[in-house]
Design a protein that fits this description.
The protein has 545 residues and is mainly α. It has helices at 7-21, 26-54, 76-99, 110-129, 133-151, 157-188, 193-199, 205-223, 232-235, 241-265, 273-292, 297-318, 321-352, 363-366, 368-382, 388-403, 406-435, 438-446, 450-457, 459-462, 480-485, 495-513, 515-530, 533-542; strands spanning 57-61, 70-74. Strands 1-2 form a two-stranded antiparallel ribbon. Helix 5 (133-151) packs antiparallel against helix 6 (157-188). It is globular, with a radius of gyration of 23 Å.
Length: 545
């Protein structure tokens, strides 16, 4: 069964190469991509069952004697992350097929999109399975290379501007990561996480603290932890809807996963607990205040993405089994919710021609299915009981109360406030975009000065909110009332797009019904993290089984 561990990485890379060869056969490319993601999902579920029943699944690759080779490890945590990532990437692929991102056009060329998407999937999978720091670095480079291409599809000037910021920030973080890897190797003589767990414990305190700071700062940039989150709100909304969805759902969570893995395996007696707690508190509050101030749905959700990263860091910083379990549960919840919400926004943009709250109105009446698809995950994001968002936040609050320190209690209060402000932000978005009539939106836009209309109504355009559907090019400056009168909007949405978004929304609701078994699983995963000896023993002693 250990031989299955590399396949979630190998298969997408092989399929990416095959899709490059099939660049003139779009139907075959769709089949290859969908079949590959389905296979990866099946492999991930198999690894999850095996890791839960028999412990970490370890395989050494590279042909070197252990522990000099490259270790890939599928334990309870990494297997769960593989299952969730495979599920959302499959949904995004189905959505993108319906949107037309598989047609060979200047906006979204097929020969680039499919291979890049599959390479991204391979990089994410490799990051979750990586058993050494250098392989983790390679994983980030693989997924970042693919994300650079996906972010700038079509080569429009807004996407290039946003992509430039994204590239510069992530290049700097990669340089810091590579420097951290070099310093860790110089101090310990190893990059294998299991070996490092033993050797870092023998280092002098100041040296270990410097190593920890370098790694945590690197991964905090990737995870968009405040104050290193400035790049995200202007970068993600510019990409096509499927790309934004997978970026928002997955990429920051890879950074969160890396923080969780490093903190538990390498630095179980963390000296940075208070610093991480402060970072979590500020990430929650600054992010959600930014969300409340937005007049564009994409940017509003981008800021809530930053804010809710704070919940995950909160659980990690508590450094307790309860905190780890709640954080893992919240990561699973948030990947599903955030991806589904951005897919729904893709439907909104296609149906209404814009995501500006100043221009939208009456969508609940014009497209009631869209209203339901937005309302359900939005309420889940806000933590309305008994949904999975509420259960995850309750778990984090209970973990914080259990610790009981003044800073932990401040995080509990901050988490409650953030949840209330999230509810306010999504309720405002629902009221403006879905509940009021198009005529009311038209009257509001007509009453604004041109400068205000330009600044608020074309917010998405100003920061480069591009669309894959070229039929709406240039409509972001017109409100929904005008577009309806001009008959410039489609009356129906592609079934595969709607089905993909509805399926992911249904899955997010399903998390509520399986919350008991899922939370029990995350508690078992948290117990493994709290006792890193299990991971270390499986890698150093059981890798050859």
């Amino acid at each position: 069964m250990n031989l299955l561990v590399p396949l979630p990485v190998i298969l997408p890379l092989f399929a990416a190469g095959l899709n490059l060869m099939l660049n003139r056969r779009p139907q075959l490319q769709r089949l290859v991509s969908t079949a590959t993601l389905l296979t990866v999902l099946g492999l991930a579920v198999t690894l999850l069952v095996q890791a839960d029943r028999h412990g970490p699944q370890v395989v050494w690759i590279g042909g070197w004697p252990e522990p000099l080779g490259i270790a890939l490890v599928a334990d309870r945590l990494s297997a769960l992350m593989l299952v969730v990532s495979a599920t959302v990437t499959l949904a995004v692929m189905v959505f993108s097929i319906g949107q037309g991102m598989t047609s060979d056009s200047a906006e979204t060329p097929l020969s680039i999109y499919h291979p890049s998407f599959l390479v991204l999937v391979a990089g994410v999978s490799n990051a979750f399975l990586a058993g050494d720091l250098f392989n983790l670095f390679v994983s980030f480079e693989i997924l970042l290379f693919a994300s650079y291409v996906l972010l700038t599809l079509g080569g429009t000037s807004p996407r290039i501007r946003a992509g430039t910021v994204y590239v510069v920030v992530n290049t700097l973080s990669s340089m810091l990561f590579l420097t951290s890897v070099a310093v860790v190797y110089a101090a310990t003589g190893s990059l294998n996480l299991a070996q490092l767990s033993q050797r870092i414990a023998d280092l002098d305190g100041p040296v270990a603290l410097v190593l920890q700071l370098m790694l945590v700062v690197t991964f905090s940039i990737k995870a968009a932890v405040f104050p290193l989150s400035f790049w995200l709100p202007d970068s993600y909304p510019t990409a096509p809807a499927p790309v934004t969805a997978v970026f928002a759902g997955l990429l920051t969570k890879v950074g969160v996963y890396a923080i969780l893995r490093v903190q538990t395996v390498l630095f179980p007696d963390s000296a940075l607990t208070d610093l991480l707690l402060w970072a979590a508190l500020l990430t929650m509050l600054v992010g959600i205040l930014g969300a409340v101030a937005q007049s564009d749905l994409k940017r509003m959700l981008s800021f809530t993405l930053v804010s809710h990263i704070g919940y995950m860091i909160f659980g990690i910083a508590l450094a307790t089994v309860a905190g780890y379990a709640a954080s893992i549960f919240y990561v699973v919840h948030h990947i599903t919710i955030q991806t589904s919400l951005f897919l729904v926004l893709g439907l909104v943009e296609r149906r209404a021609g814009s995501t500006s709250l100043l221009r939208l109105g009456g969508l609940a009446r014009l497209a009631p299915v869209l209203g339901v698809l937005f309302f359900v995950p939005a309420m889940n994001l806000a933590g309305i009981p008994p949904m999975s968002g509420f259960l995850g936040k309750v778990g984090l609050i209970e973990a914080g109360l259990e610790v009981g320190s003044p800073l932990a209690l401040a995080l509990v209060a901050g988490g409650v406030l953030t949840s209330l402000l999230t509810l306010y932000a999504v309720a405002k978005a629902w009221n403006l975009a879905f509940w009021r009539t198009p005529e009311q939106a038209h009257e509001m836009v007509a009453g604004l000065p041109d400068t205000d209309t330009e600044r608020g109504g074309s917010e998405a355009s100003r920061v480069g909110a591009g669309r894959a559907d070229s039929a709406h090019e240039g409509t972001d400056r017109r409100d929904l009332h005008e577009l309806l009168e001009a008959d410039a909007l489609p009356t129906r949405l592609p079934r595969s797009m709607t089905a993909a978004a509805a399926g992911l929304v249904s899955l997010s609701v399903g998390l509520t019904f399986v919350a008991g078994p899922l939370y029990s699983y995350t508690e078992r995963a948290a117990e493994d993290l709290a006792q890193p000896g299990r991971y270390v023993g499986a890698v150093l002693e059981g890798g050859s089984r």
